[in-house]
Each structure stands twice: as structure tokens, then as C-alpha cells.
Amino acid sequence: MGSLSNQNKLHINKRYSKIVKIMSAAWFQKTFKLKPRKKGCYLITDEVLQPVREELKTIKIGLCNVFLPHTSAGLALCENYDPTVQKDMEVSFNRIVP
Description:
This protein is mainly α.
């Protein structure tokens, strides 16, 4: 197998440097409390976004992990395009756990 030309080495180094830059992206963690609610299904997007709004301005792509350390709380991720989805979920949960 032949050795790489200087041009190819430069190309590979530029690509590697971009990959490293992408892979070395920063991460952050925030702890916050949601306001208490009665039993039901609620849209909490704004409450989750509010504490991290400034940090999100610097991020182009990422992953959000939400941890609810409470035995009677649950988290369901649903599309919010159709307003009946939230009601349908609540009706279903009420049938399962009255």
C-alpha cells in the first residue's frame, strides 16, 4: 500500500479536526422544579426550556434527558400537532389507572 500524498494528508487532517470539534462539544446539566399539578396530562415544554434557554442558543444539535425522581410522576413524549392527543392520553391513562 502506497503512502499518502501531502495533499491527501492535509485533507484527512482537516476532516479529522472537524470531527474532533463536533465530538468535543460541551454539555451541561440543570436541575429545576416543575410546578405542582393535579392528576392529568400537561404540556411542560416551556417549563423545561425556560431554565436552559440561554444555553440552547449556543447548541445546534443535541439531546435532552429529563429525569423525574418521583414515584407518582411519569413522562410521555408525544407530538403536539393535534390538540386531541393530550386528551386521548389522559382518557387512556384514567382507564388504566383510575
